[in-house]
Structure formats: C-alpha cells, structure tokens
Amino acid sequence: MTTQNTPVSLTGENIHLSFGTNKVLRGVDIHVDAGKTTTVIGPSGSGKSTLLRALNRLHEPEQGDILIDGKSVLKDNPDKLRQRIGMVFQHFNLFPHKTVADNVALGPRKLQGLSKDAARALAVEQLEAVGLGAKADSRPGNLSGGQQQRVAIARALAMKPEIMFFDEATSALDPELVKGVLSLMADLASGGMSMIVVTHEMGFARSVSDTVVFMDHGQVVETGPPSALFENAETDRLRQFLAQVL
Ligand code: ADP
Ligand code: MG
After folding, report:
1. End-to-end alpha-carbon separation of the chain, Å?
2. Residue 143 to residue 135: CA distance in whole angstroms
3. DSSP assignments along 72-117, one per residue
4. Closest Cα to atom 1 of ligand 1
5. CA of 24 to the centre of ligand 1 (A)
6. Alpha carbon of 50 to ligand 2 centroid (Å)
7. What pairing do the DSSP bridges indicate for beta strands 163-167 and 71-72?
8. How far away, in angstroms, is 90 Cα from ligand 2 center?
9. Nearest-CA neighbor of 185 among 161, 153, 211?
10. Which pLDDT tens digit goes with each residue over 221-242?
11. Which of 72, 106, 205, 206 has its Cα between 20 and 30 A from that of 222?
C-alpha cells in the first residue's frame, strides 16, 4: 500500500470575494478538522463553488485568511497549495483518448516526477482502491458516468492530497449511479481523509459529515453538527431550504 499524506485541518476565515460588483463571498468562515468531513449545503448561486475556489486560491480572496494546520497559506506558492488539495468536480474532465490508467498517472508523472512505470503502478493501485482495477486499460468513454467519477477520485488520490474538495461530485450522474460514488466518498471519510464536500445529497450530509455549513447569498447562515442543522434549524432560511430539498 502506498503511503497517504497525513490529513490536515483547514480553516477559511472571513473570506471575501467579488466578481466585479457582485459580492459573492461576504465574510465566510469554514473549518474542517484533520480527518473529518465538513459539508457545504445551500441554494444554487449561494457561493459554494466559489468558496472552494477561494480556499484553493484559484480565485484569490480579497480579504480573509486560509490556514492549514493553523498556519496561513496565503503567502505560499498557489501551485504548491493546490497540489496539497485534491479536487473532484461535477464534470470529471478525463482525457477521452488516454486510457483510464494514463489519466490517473498523468499528475504523478508530470507534477511529481514519477517514472512511467512507477506512475503506472500507482495508478493501477489507486484504481483498485476505487474498485476499478479491471478498467485500467479502458478508455473513459467505455465506462459509466459513475465509474468515470470514481476514476476522477482515483486521479485526485494519486497525488496524495492532504485534504479533498468535492464540488457536487454526483450532480451530473444518472440517479442509479449516484450511490456508488457517495459510498466511495463515505469510505474515504471514514478512512480518515479530511474533506470539504459541496453537495445536494442531504442523506450524505446528514450521515457522513462531522460539520454542516449552510450558505446563502455568500454568507454562512448556520453551521454545526448535522443533528443541529437537520433537526433543530435556527433560521427560517435553513428551514425553507430543507423543506425544498428533503
Ligand atoms: P453555487 O456553487 O453555490 O451555485 P457559485 O459559487 O457558482 O454558486 O456562484 C455564486 C455567484 O458567483 C453567482 O452569482 C455566479 O454568477 C457568480 N460567479 C461564479 N463564478 C463566477 C465567475 N468566474 N465570474 C463571474 N461571476 C461568477
Ligand atoms: Mg456550484
């Protein structure tokens, strides 16, 4: 088994970010403990994706701080920061003309300087870990959407991230394929990965998260353990949101 990096804690403090005059993040605080899962829920357009992009500095926050294990990373090289964070998006963006194993091996080869053989061995191992060892030499187009998303997760894990971000990883999948991806994410969480998960899957948020963050209009409206948010919502905004999605 290859060694995984030690999971880290991550904190976003008072994150502000605008696109032109549109203030998309208006002082967001978010935290995930090392080895725990924080889930972000909220209506479309509330700033969830932008928050993930601010936390890995794809969009630089205008104000606020980002800390890993309590230490600010704002002065670090952003590319170095992004190598510490595994990202999984709604659209998996695998290279269609490369094999599944080559897709997974690409990052370790190009960014971590692994030899072709070592990167291949790592890719096959990560594919086995997500239940797709037998698909190593297939093209992505011959896999189901759920399998492709598991490849995308293997691709992120091959980089030995210290924390994983998921942005609506199951939203583009046919309903019967959602479960396999969610159960892989739940396995990662119970295996001690640090994760920030943006999702509309309330069952996952409720059963897997340690902390839930409810966002609306670029602000955190409520945050706490799942039982508090799902059973004892304090605000009308959260109650209305839950009434719509549950
Ligand atoms: P969510 O993920 O919660 O649906 P987003 O973070 O995608 O919300 O979007 C929040 C707001 O930011 C929306 O008003 C959206 O139009 C705006 N926005 C997001 N990304 C960009 C961008 N790259 N340029 C301009 N506006 C953007
Ligand atoms: Mg989004």
Report:
1. 40
2. 8
3. E-TTS-HHHHHHHEEEE-SS----TTS-HHHHHHHHHHHHH---HH
4. 45
5. 7
6. 7
7. unpaired
8. 9
9. 153
10. 999 999 999 999 999 999 999 9
11. 72
- Per the listing, tokens 């403990």 go with 33
Q: Which residues contact 147 (CB under 8 A, 6 or more apart)?
A: 132, 135
Alpha carbon distance 105, 208 (integer Å): 29
64 class by beta-carbon count within 10 Å (0-12 exposed, 13-18 middle, 19+ buried):
middle
- Beta-strand relationship, 22-32 and 219-224: unpaired
- Cα separation, 168 vs 115, whole angstroms: 33
> Which residue in the block uniquely carries the two structure tokens 């991806």?
181
Global confidence as pTM? 0.97
Tokens 């500095």 sit on residue: 57
Strands (DSSP E) found in the chain: 10-19, 22-32, 37-41, 63-68, 71-72, 85-88, 163-167, 195-198, 211-216, 219-224
The fold adopted by the segment(s) 10-93+161-245 is Rossmann fold (3.40.50)
Rounded to an integer, the average pLDDT of 145-169 is 97
As a whole-number percent, the residues of the chain with pLDDT over 90 amount to 97
* Neighbour tally for 195: CB within 10 Å: 25
Dihedral sign computed on CA atoms, order 184, 187, 192, 196 = positive
From 16, 49, 89, 171, give the residue whose CB has the most ligand 1 atoms within 8 Å, as the site to mutate. Answer: 49
